[in-house]
């Protein structure tokens, strides 16, 4: 089976060869050379190579398990026998990254690679879940990943990291006529359907976790409460977090740990009280702005600016992109 024969060959025309009685023709290497550029993938070439090496074993295991389930018995032919992939593994990763980065139509990539559109679609559906399951990089701890909110809180407790928490929304397509949620809109968002995701980062704006994928009409505070943040804060008293006004109820319940902007004084407040409130609000906002920068870094990827795919694939897409962004942020 041809998995990564194209990782090292970057220039040239088209790879051809013959294995036993099965001829194979892989993708033109000029397409691989172009699409592996950081402008298309959003990753440095070194990061791309490390990502391909990391995903090769999980993809192989999943692929062999799927083949075994389809056959109904273990393989009986020697490894390397049978028809080969039209799209080698590294090109599957490249195609998926380009789709995540630019939402390029699958048919356009199929033309570049000289394969059918369904081949690109199948590659994206194979690689995207693997990217989503990778988790999030820990600064200064290569090889270790954070995958759950509990992991993040335990890490913050152990390392003395002050967290920043915020929700972000992405516009999605409305459900079809007569489908649930067709008439549900987010207040103040110009009658848009959105999906909300909660982001947690450190004070340098490095993404530590993204999750709590919920409908956009749900309050930020409710979304993260469903993930069990209250129980985690009770068990980790040394964890502190800066949040915006949407988490004020959480800040009231955990006043010594969660810090929200101060409430606005009454209308009859003196000018001195208003000035003090404004200074405190500005200071808290400047300390919390890094999580906004983290969300903005995610949305440099076109798929998170406006999602035009199927809604059931949005969570995988957001987690995959957030994990890749965390890799880059952890190197800062």
Structural write-up:
- 46% of the residues lie in helices and 14% in strands.
- With 332 residues, it is α/β, with parallel strands linked by helices.
- The protein folds into two domains: 14-132, no CATH class; 141-330, no CATH class.
- A five-stranded mixed sheet has the order 7-6-5-8-9, sandwiched between helices. Strands 1-2 form a two-stranded antiparallel sheet.
- Helix 4 (89-102) packs across helix 6 (117-132), helix 5 packs across helix 6 and helix 6 (117-132) packs across helix 12 (314-330).
Instruction: Kindly state the number of beta strands.
Output: 9
What's the domain count? 2
**What is the helix/strand order?**
EEHHHHHHEEHEEEHHEHEHH
Radius of gyration: 23 Å
Determine the strand fraction and express it as a percent band: 5-15%
Strand order of the largest sheet: 7-6-5-8-9
Q: Biggest β-sheet, characterized?
A: 5 strands, mixed
Going by helix content, strand content and strand pairing, the class is alpha/beta
Distance between the termini: 38 Å
Main attributes of the structure:
332 residues; alpha/beta; 9 strands; 14% strand; disordered N terminus
Write the layout of secondary structure elements.
Layout: E1 14-19, E2 22-28, H1 29-35, H2 38-41, H3 45-71, H4 89-102, H5 106-113, H6 117-132, E3 136-137, E4 145-146, H7 149-159, E5 163-171, E6 194-201, E7 207-215, H8 220-226, H9 229-235, E8 241-242, H10 248-253, E9 258-259, H11 271-298, H12 314-330
Parallel strand pairs: 5-8, 8-9
Antiparallel strand pairs: 1-2, 3-4, 5-6, 6-7
């Amino acid at each position: 089976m041809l998995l990564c024969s194209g990782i090292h060959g970057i220039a040239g025309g088209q790879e051809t060869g013959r294995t036993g009685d099965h001829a194979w023709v892989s993708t033109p290497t000029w397409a691989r050379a172009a699409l592996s550029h950081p402008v298309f993938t959003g990753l440095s070439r070194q990061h791309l190579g490390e990502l391909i090496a990391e995903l090769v074993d999980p993809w192989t295991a999943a692929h062999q398990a799927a083949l075994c389930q389809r056959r109904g018995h273990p393989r009986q032919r020697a490894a390397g026998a049978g028809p080969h992939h039209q799209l080698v593994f590294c090109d599957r990763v490249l195609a998926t990254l380009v789709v995540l980065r630019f939402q390029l139509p699958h048919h356009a990539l199929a033309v570049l690679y000289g394969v059918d559109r369904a081949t690109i679609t199948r590659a994206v559906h194979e690689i995207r879940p693997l990217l989503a399951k990778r988790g999030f990089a820990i600064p200064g701890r290569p090889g270790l990943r954070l995958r759950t909110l509990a992991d993040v809180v335990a890490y913050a407790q152990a390392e003395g990291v002050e967290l920043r928490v915020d929700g972000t929304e992405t516009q999605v397509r409305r459900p079809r006529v007569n489908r649930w949620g067709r008439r549900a809109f987010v207040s103040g968002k110009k009658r848009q359907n959105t999906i909300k995701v909660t982001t947690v980062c450190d004070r340098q704006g490095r993404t530590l976790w993204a999750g709590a994928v919920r409908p956009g009409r749900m309050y930020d505070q409710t979304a993260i409460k469903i993930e069990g943040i209250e129980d985690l804060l009770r068990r980790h008293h040394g964890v502190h977090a800066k949040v915006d006004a949407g988490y004020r109820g959480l800040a009231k319940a955990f006043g010594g740990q969660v810090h929200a902007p101060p409430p606005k004084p009454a209308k009859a407040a003196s000018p001195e009280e208003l000035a003090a409130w404004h200074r405190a609000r500005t200071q808290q906002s400047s300390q919390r702005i890094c999580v906004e920068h983290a969300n903005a870094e995610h949305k440099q990827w076109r798929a998170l600016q406006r999602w035009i795919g199927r809604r059931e694939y949005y969570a995988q897409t957001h987690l995959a992109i957030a994990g890749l962004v965390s890799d880059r942020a952890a190197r800062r």
